[in-house]
Amino acid sequence: MIEVSALHKSFLTGTGRAKQLIPAVRGISFGAADGQVTGLVGPNGAGKTTTLRMIATLVVPDSGHATIDGLDSVTDSLEVRKSLGVLSDARGLYSRLTTRENIRYYGRLRGMADPAIDAALERLAGLIEMGPLLDRRAEGFSQGERMKVAIARALIHDPKNLVLDEPTNGLDILSTRALRELIRRLKDAGKCILISSHIMQEIVALADSIVIVAEGRTVARGTAEELLEATGASNLEDAFVALSRPREGGTANEASDGAADADDVLPDLSQLTTVPAAAPAAAPAAAPAAAPVASPPVDPNA
């Protein structure tokens, strides 16, 4: 289970007198339950990717908390990583290594033995139709081929919790259908799955609950049916626009700073978008020492 409580994160940009602190996340809160797919949606710049990076222990929040199975993403980062499978927005692969070598390396980082890695890899290759890629070098892979390898890399250690940032980006129709079926199987196996996507059809097809964020804040949570009922919209795309667009006197989420429990579904639009403001975030604390990460293999031909 993944729980996010009042996360805040700002980034320093510019130099000299042009230096300024830009808020990326300003109070995002939600929960993602085991055995469910939770969809995280929002316009560009809403703070989705930064939120996922904080959950994945890649970015330290200024304030607030993200916990995975009760473990804090900052103070228990090494243990958290063991139970997480992360598909980030960066799909980097070692270009001189084959698909098998790329994934085997990540499996070893997870403490897996080669026979276990090979067995898991063969199973994943069949599920996401990447068998022909296994012994090809990653150099020259298409976007869709790179995505398949990145997905297998995230799943190789059979994690209890999955964080998938735009998982179908670059996949063709057949591969997308195969991935959707894999996600459903993983959900049925009791895994907690958090997906970020801009594709509403994807969210409708997969998500049991939906979290809408805008300008770094949570503005609505619930099932697709509950969000449609609350907004009076006829489809989820219209509901999303109604909840995230600017409104008279400010943005739809201006009064929200991540209040309400993750299980709450507020009954009408005014309640969905107007909740008591939380106290201002404290000044960013010094980040703790980063957890050690194994060094990648040296590519002699790089």
What does the model show?
With 302 residues, the protein is α/β, with parallel strands linked by helices. It folds into two domains: 1-13 and 25-83 and 160-284, P-loop containing nucleotide triphosphate hydrolases (Rossmann fold, 3-Layer(aba) Sandwich), CATH 3.40.50; 91-158, no CATH class. The protein contains ten helices and twelve strands. The chain has helices spanning 48-55, 77-82, 99-109, 114-127, 143-155, 173-188, 200-206, 224-231, 236-244, 269-273; strands spanning 2-13, 20-32, 37-41, 63-68, 71-72, 84-87, 161-165, 192-196, 209-214, 217-222, 246-247, 250-251. The chain has a six-stranded mixed β-sheet, with helices on both faces. A hairpin with a 6-residue loop joins strand 1 (2-13) and strand 2. Helix 3 (99-109) crosses helix 4 (114-127), helix 3 (99-109) packs parallel to helix 5 and helix 8 packs across helix 9 (236-244). The termini are far apart. The model is unreliable at 248-295 (pLDDT under 50).
Give the strand content. 15-25%
Q: Which structural class do the helices and strands define?
A: alpha/beta
Cα-atom radius of gyration: 20 Å
Percentage of helical residues?
25-40%
CATH architecture of the largest domain: 3-Layer(aba) Sandwich
